[in-house]
Write a structure and sequence with these properties.
By secondary structure, the protein is α+β, with helices and mostly antiparallel strands. The protein has ten helices and 17 strands. The chain has a six-stranded antiparallel sheet with strand order 7-6-5-10-9-8. A five-stranded mixed sheet has the order 12-13-11-16-17, with helices on both faces.
């Protein structure tokens, strides 16, 4: 049979104590004096946690009631506290699960995983890393607590490093001071973090992610912290599986299927975001519009498959020439766009000419007569915020610069300056 007990009263001379507040939250009747307990009526047991200060035994009306005091009372108090902690932990895990389930896109799930991990452990910083077992590479999915850091950073697994050790662990790893751990290889959390708690996130036996939380000062994570973090890591693993599937579907919507870089729709959304970022932080950036001068000729004389090959090679050149923070997209049949954050027009001109020269090295060979056609490109540049306040102004300026390239013989780079005219520093053919 299941036995139950009801708490029918709570006595504390200090009605402002933390215990009194808890009793009020639980709707337990409060008493300031021990003598008042006799007014309750049918009471079977009194647990005296005051170390005898309330003198329960001195009250005649309470002498018939069983009293637990001293070490026994403290033991009961500890049991109740432990039970309350378990209930709080369960609530935390349930709340985190609801929050993860409510997210509708991959980036929101990444953020929710990290936010809930920090909340559960009371940590200040954290990183969520996507791990590819096949290529042994790490990708930063989300970061909290480090200014100027964002997702997208990638790096290779360091042999013998902490990350590699973490892959084989079934339980979380705790490092009290990463400054004393030469093998710590999380490039983001190396910046000022001291204490770290980390766990591998798995799908079956395959590691798909790594979850790190930490603090900027030395901290001893308790057994409760580690246990709760371990439980949450199981939830986070399931959520990460869902997010990675979502990410693949999202990529199908925003990625150009032929070249593997972003498409036109994603470009304009990204351009708008870059404008907002530059306005907010007072920065600048440059936009490149790239037009392949003779792609139509290649399509007509060598066939569409050769034209597709040329487009793929151009996309690969963009990947090689650009920084991780730069952005490239295919806008149409023979047109590409590049966004260069924190880059002025003279700097952008250098990048554009590097791209143009490498495109000039592309030679598409005919399978019929062994003749080859060299690919050329014209590139127009516009810098923000010099040239207007929105996407249309910037696109029009870059398009004008591109048009002048075509007029002047193609295979050129032209920059539209804030004076309203074209830059005198126009590249020559090479």
């Amino acid at each position: 049979n299941h036995l139950s007990a009801n708490i029918v009263g709570f006595c504390d001379p200090d009605l402002n104590s933390a215990s009194t507040s808890i009793a009020e939250e639980l709707d337990i009747p409060l008493f300031e004096r021990i003598e008042q307990l006799s007014a309750i009526g049918d009471v079977d047991l009194i647990i005296d946690m005051s170390d005898g200060k309330l003198a329960v035994d001195s009250v005649d009306s309470l002498k018939r009631i069983e009293v637990i005091s001293g070490a026994s009372a403290r033991f009961v108090k500890e049991l109740l506290a432990a039970q309350r902690c378990r209930e709080e932990d369960l609530t935390s895990i349930i709340d985190a699960g609801f929050d993860l389930a409510s997210k509708k896109d991959s980036q929101s799930i990444f953020r929710s995983i990290l936010e809930n991990a920090l909340k559960i452990t009371g940590s200040k910083t954290g990183t969520l890393i996507i791990f590819n077992e096949r290529t042994e590479t790490c990708r930063l999915a989300e970061v909290i607590g480090y200014s100027g850091k964002s997702g997208g950073l990638t790096w290779e697994l360091q042999p013998g490093g902490i990350t590699e050790q973490l892959l084989d662990l079934q339980e979380p790893m705790f490092i009290q001071d990463i400054n004393q751990e030469p093998l710590f290889d999380n490039p983001v959390m190396n910046e000022g973090t001291v204490s770290v708690l980390a766990s591998a996130l798995k799908e079956a036996d395959e590691v798909i992610g790594l979850l790190f939380v930490g603090d900027f000062k030395p901290r001893q994570f308790s057994k409760r912290d580690i246990s709760l973090f371990s439980c949450f890591a199981l939830q986070a693993s399931l959520a990460l599986q869902k997010a990675l599937l979502m990410e693949k579907n999202e990529e199908l919507v925003v990625i150009d299927s032929l070249t593997g870089i972003y498409n036109k729709n994603h470009f304009f959304a990204s351009l708008d975001m870059e404008i907002k970022r530059a306005r907010r932080y007072g920065g600048n950036f440059s936009l490149l519009l790239i037009d392949l001068d003779n792609l139509d000729y290649i399509n007509d004389y060598l066939g569409r498959s050769k034209g597709d090959l040329a487009l793929k090679k151009v996309a690969e050149i963009l990947r090689l020439c650009l920084r991780q923070t730069d952005y490239s997209a295919r806008l149409g049949d023979d047109e590409f766009a590049v966004i260069l954050p924190n880059t002025n027009s003279p700097q952008a001109t250098i990048v554009a000419n590097r791209i143009r020269r490498q495109i000039n090295d592309i030679s598409i060979k005919s399978e019929i007569d062994d003749k080859s056609i060299k690919l050329t490109a014209s590139i127009g540049i516009a810098e923000f915020p010099c040239l207007g306040n929105d996407c249309d102004d910037l696109m029009n300026a870059a398009s004008t610069a591109l048009y002048i390239c075509k007029q002047r013989g193609r295979n050129l780079v032209c920059c539209f300056e804030d004076t309203g005219g074209l830059s005198n520093a126009e590249s020559a053919k090479s």
